[in-house]
Write a structure and sequence with these properties.
Blueprint lengths: L27 E2 L17 E6 L8 H4 L27 H9 L5 E4 L7 H12 L18 E6 L2 H6 L4 H16 L4 E5 L8 H4 L8 H30 L36 E5 L1 H10 L28 H16 L2
Parallel strand pairs: 2-3, 2-4, 4-5, 5-6
Antiparallel strand pairs: 1-6
Helix pairs in contact: 2-9, 3-5, 5-7, 8-9
Organism: Serendipita vermifera MAFF 305830
Protein name: Carbohydrate esterase family 16 protein
Length: about 325
Amino acid sequence: MHTFNPEDSVGSIHVPPPIEMQPAAPSWAILAPSATSKWKGFNKIRYLFIFGESYSSTCIPSSMGKLDPNDEEPLGVPFPGITTCEPGTPNWVGHLVTEYAPNPILVFNYAISGSTVPDVTLQIERYFLSDSTGPSKRGIPWTAENSLFITWVGLNDLAISPYPEEPIRELFNAQRKLYTAGARNFLFINVPPIDRAPACTLMEMYGVDEDDREASLQRAAARFLNWNTALAASARHFASPKPAPLTPDYMPELFVDPAVRPPVAVAEEQINEGASVMLFSSYESMSAILDDPEGHGFPEADIKKMSGSSIWVDHMHPTSRVHDLLARDLSRFLGKI
């Protein structure tokens, strides 16, 4: 994963409110109001197709063209796969399919550690759409109704640049490739509050003066919120049966450098008839844990610990216990839609 630099400046993007709220879970949904929707509920999903980076990865790239999940080995590799959690422990993918899915689910996971949005485009093209090893070419009986396409990306992009415009535009153009191939159920996961991870909270380890830490944390927090607001705006746009141009608007309270105002990211104008687009907030789920660690079974002192912590494996990757709670929240979220 790329090194995050909390000193970089950020721009701000305003997002309109979501179409549909899900107050019973720490997350929310955007659903296209379409009579042709293929979303019949989480209990009807048989296949997950996952794209992204280290928070989601369960296998190495050389295995991805040969994935053959079954009910005994739902990840297509020996459980729990290769994750960035503690050795031999599952991430949210493993927890979801073994503990929280209402019915058996088979996973085609193409997420690769260190990936950015351009890498997600390659994951879609190289593995899912492959003429030789793609699921459709191998006769996997996935359909628009029995499959959910999940993308969780952004942290590595934000380590390279604080501006979400270009990567999010590319992200949704890549989703259009999935739509053209027959995908109709889309789930996006936004980025968690890494400004509260040891990578940022222990900035003295990186030589950041104490006087500069508060401003640096504010810049870091704005960076992740900017991504999430831009992601939500573009997801809403992607879900709309009649997309209208997004108007740039900004959130001054988050804006750090008023001299730089990147425009709202908008993918190519397309009408995605029948697409159901959902957005799960890992930001809210992880914030709930960090706001009340003891209420979630974690010692208060572990919030800022980088090693030997029950919350963080390292500077920015959460433990399997945290992934378990993310999977629980995601399952509750999907179960209510």
